[in-house]
Amino acid sequence: MSEVSKNLWKDWRLHALVFGIVLVTEWIGTHEFSVGPGVILLLPMLYAIIIGLALFFTPVVKEKQSKNAEPLIVLGVTLLIAKIGVIIGPSLPQIIEAGPALLLQEFGNLGTIFLALPIAVFLGLKRESIGMTHSVAREPNVGLIMNNYGFNSPEGRGVMAIYIFGTVFGAVFMGLISGFLATISPLHPLSFAMASGIGSGSMMAAASGSLVAAFPSMETEILAFAGASNLLSLSTGLYMSIFIGLPLTEKLYNVLTARRDKKSHVKTGRGA
Amino acid sequence: MMKSMQEWIVLLVIFGIVSLLGNWVGYGTFPVGAIPGMVILILVSLVGMIMQKLIPIDIPSIAYVAIVGVLISMPWMPGSEQIVAMTSSINLLALTTPILAYAGIAIGRSWTDFVKLGWRTIVVASFVMIGTFLGSAIIAEVVLRMQGII
């Protein structure tokens, strides 16, 4: 957390609002409904982000509260990580045993390239798609793309687009799909717990929170594995992108667009 | 450093009080009994943030916070049982609700940027997230099965 000397604690309006949101959303509690064989869980934290966002557009929240709230997310995540730390501690022997799975699933982040890049190219996106799909676009990845291509490049716009989506909807999206995918697929909840660690505190909390709500008897294991995986992603994610993710995305992009260009050339008769 | 430490402490206490009351409403844990656990978590956060300031290596403070949390709760650490028992009265989700409430208020300002993104971005972004989540889960499943853990 950066040097905060703006006396954020004095923003009583902001804290009172958050306090109100927390009481209301916790009082509403968790609700679930089935979609086919899967379960979608509505958790207090999901209502909290939506109510917070909605309040931004009312006179209750002023520009100042919105600005002040940003560093407080970081501080809250710090407390959350402390809690995850004390969940990981007692499970350490188990985590060490599962170590290889934890390390290797980091390669799963490359799944995003194979799934999302062809879709981006199919939708007609150009080099934006490289920035968009080389990773889940959290802060270190935005930095990497800006560093390699510059802020005002198609790749830079692409990574920012996904970054903004992730910031606005990441937690809600992960919270909704993780419980759902885990209940419809035959994969084990612990595999999904490891997958919850994508390198964003709020997304990990949402994804693993939904898993815990769907499989309450495995709470400690799920949270320990998700937390350990998230820490691993935070520390290795950038290097994964630098050495594997981004070069792979470039290669695959060239292959995909070569095919697309050829096709369009044939169609327009310019290919010959 | 002293100034920002005071600020951290006051803010963490505010955050802690809000979480404790959320923990009460949502998970039925009476706040008084959960205070020791919250105090431990706040101390762990502070120690981690102070370490980040003092150690001249560029590692984010949450990495230190996590290490401190893991160290004090490891089975072979004296007193770890009490620490685990005390902190277990704080529900993880009770901590995430205030974070996302602050996040909701903060992201209001990115909303207009988001609206400008267009539907193609939303489709791609959804697949970006599903891709990493399913990819990781499938690899984890294969390796955990090979190890005989699940």
Automatic annotation (TrEMBL), chain A:
<dbReference type="Pfam" id="PF11299">
    <property type="entry name" value="DUF3100"/>
</dbReference>
<feature type="transmembrane region" description="Helical">
    <location>
        <begin position="35"/>
        <end position="60"/>
    </location>
</feature>
<feature type="transmembrane region" description="Helical">
    <location>
        <begin position="222"/>
        <end position="246"/>
    </location>
</feature>
<dbReference type="InterPro" id="IPR021450">
    <property type="entry name" value="DUF3100"/>
</dbReference>
<keyword id="KW-1133">Transmembrane helix</keyword>
<keyword id="KW-0472">Membrane</keyword>
<feature type="transmembrane region" description="Helical">
    <location>
        <begin position="107"/>
        <end position="125"/>
    </location>
</feature>
<feature type="transmembrane region" description="Helical">
    <location>
        <begin position="161"/>
        <end position="184"/>
    </location>
</feature>
<feature type="transmembrane region" description="Helical">
    <location>
        <begin position="72"/>
        <end position="95"/>
    </location>
</feature>
<keyword id="KW-0812">Transmembrane</keyword>
<feature type="transmembrane region" description="Helical">
    <location>
        <begin position="12"/>
        <end position="29"/>
    </location>
</feature>
<protein>
    <submittedName>
        <fullName>DUF3100 domain-containing protein</fullName>
    </submittedName>
</protein>
<feature type="transmembrane region" description="Helical">
    <location>
        <begin position="190"/>
        <end position="215"/>
    </location>
</feature>
UniProtKB/TrEMBL annotation, chain B:
<feature type="transmembrane region" description="Helical">
    <location>
        <begin position="7"/>
        <end position="26"/>
    </location>
</feature>
<protein>
    <recommendedName>
        <fullName>DUF340 domain-containing protein</fullName>
    </recommendedName>
</protein>
<feature type="transmembrane region" description="Helical">
    <location>
        <begin position="32"/>
        <end position="50"/>
    </location>
</feature>
<feature type="transmembrane region" description="Helical">
    <location>
        <begin position="83"/>
        <end position="105"/>
    </location>
</feature>
<keyword id="KW-0812">Transmembrane</keyword>
<keyword id="KW-0472">Membrane</keyword>
<keyword id="KW-1133">Transmembrane helix</keyword>
<feature type="transmembrane region" description="Helical">
    <location>
        <begin position="57"/>
        <end position="77"/>
    </location>
</feature>
<feature type="transmembrane region" description="Helical">
    <location>
        <begin position="117"/>
        <end position="140"/>
    </location>
</feature>
